[in-house]
């Protein structure tokens, strides 16, 4: 089975550049603006979209994404509405992969079987559920693979070589390497360490390896893109969006533009990544 | 639920995956998983290590002051005119509640694991104080996360933690209560996983915490059995305890689970009544879901978003419950009932005046249920209630409500 994720990474591999994976919270700051932002992402240079499912208690997220989730929930966002966002996006884009990212409880309450059927028909390609480690694979990972939906797993600096095979076993689509022990939005410290870790993971798997948590600038995206197959940016985009809102957290004329501008800049970074590495090799 | 309605024993859980039936488990981020597995290994080794057991028992005896007395509440029993009421006096422990039982056990584990920094969440502040106490005793730096609302309503405990050298971090997200404190403690842990030990205060969270905390707290029930045997020559007819996360309750209940003659009652925070949303009765009116590392009964909406809940008692103000309680509810072994804020307040005052004991608002909930049940029982029946904390921390909250301030 080939998903949009597999096809997209194959294409980028042929082009010789890493993917720009962009995270936005579904329904933030409201449903309509969120849909507009989603539609603007591919044009601005996003290769894969991570669509956040808001949750009341996001234990692995920093303040920026916590606030994004709260704004979305306040505007009536729900898991059903997030699936509806994807469905509406698919009306005009049938190629850009969408990965749903969030926490397990809303999916558990929606019902795993019903969720997988609805996600699939809404055009969802992969799932990334923070609080489902391989030890809990029977909950959602195995049913998702059965349903033809990729299950993307997080590998972290604490995932050592002994544990890595267990983490990779049922992973599909790509591996998401979390650049640090921490919550989303912390500052990345040492990109060379990240590159070593990516090499370590690549020695265990043929899947694409994307790196996220703490990537904030085009320069960082470029540096990480030298070894990684994809660079994930979330908090920086959410922050840029939030900065454009008015005092009541309502969107302004600059909201979609702010996201588009940052994503274009980041896209420039990942597109320069391999050129830069070729140059370095030449020197 | 795929489990026999009456298992052979109620005391064998959890299984290797940390499950009690469908409840429990390890729903945590990958960053924490290796550490949780390491903790489980260390805990398994410690359980069979004579020197660990000896050190734990010596500290329980000489530092905490165990065994805590089992006290026959003669005046209260006569006043209610029914069953004989005994209190397990865990409020007389060092630091004023049952929380120290668990903290001593876990700090010994943290030491064995070579961790150098302790973090904890706290609601009423009793667990925060107990954690700050053992951190001082063993020379660890300590940070405690506490909801901003709780910082305000449990001010005496905030001061105690600071005196003990702990840093108290108020958490203003949500309603500023225990749930929010736990989220923030988990965020700290995932950031500082290399050197930090998360000393969870209740029998909840990812496996092995629910089992481990239960085992450290089961000293309550074991002592109660022995003490009541000595006093009355038999087992109680009923044991009663308050449940917030459920650690004092599981500590009292667990040694009695396989004694079919002992009726077991857990008392939840009914807040301002179950008809609205201002309560924390997750077992009585919640549904199973996944939060804070385990599957258990939760107060949540139909989108799986967790509700805030309310209780007059900061220690019961949590929209979840330890997973073993969820399982004990489903199997029918334990009865869980709600008690409202006003009923707890009345019980608080009655005990203070009849027995000269100021209880914490948490066990005042258990007491309110005892007040309902005792008169319906005969004079030769026995109830044991866990008086799990003392009320010094609550006197300002209570005097404000009763208008006794000046």
Describe the structure.
Chain A has 283 residues and is α/β, with parallel strands linked by helices. Helices cover 49% and strands 13% of the residues of chain A. Chain A contains twelve helices and nine strands. A nine-stranded parallel sheet of chain A has the order 5-4-3-2-1-9-8-7-6. The radius of gyration of chain A is 17 Å and the shape is globular. With 406 residues, chain B is an alpha/beta fold. Chain B folds into two domains: 22-60 and 99-213, Rossmann fold (3-Layer(aba) Sandwich), CATH 3.40.50; 66-96 and 218-401, Rossmann fold. Chain B is built from 16 helices and 14 strands. Chain B has helices spanning 33-47, 50-64, 74-80, 99-112, 126-138, 148-153, 155-163, 178-191, 209-217, 219-232, 247-253, 282-285, 323-331, 341-355, 361-373, 395-401, and strands at 19-20, 23-27, 70-72, 84-88, 117-122, 142-147, 167-171, 196-198, 238-242, 263-271, 287-291, 293-298, 335-340, 382-386. In chain B, the strands form three sheets. Chain B has a six-stranded mixed sheet, sandwiched between helices. In chain B, helix 2 packs across helix 4 (99-112). The radius of gyration of chain B is 19 Å and the shape is globular. The mean pLDDT of chain B is 95. Classes of the chains: A alpha/beta (283), B alpha/beta (406). The A-B interface holds A 55-62, 66, 73, 78-80, 103-110, 130-133, 135-136, 153-160, 163, 167, 178, 181-183, 186 and B 17, 25-35, 173-174, 179, 183, 186-187, 190-194, 287, 289-293, 295, 298, 300, 302-306.
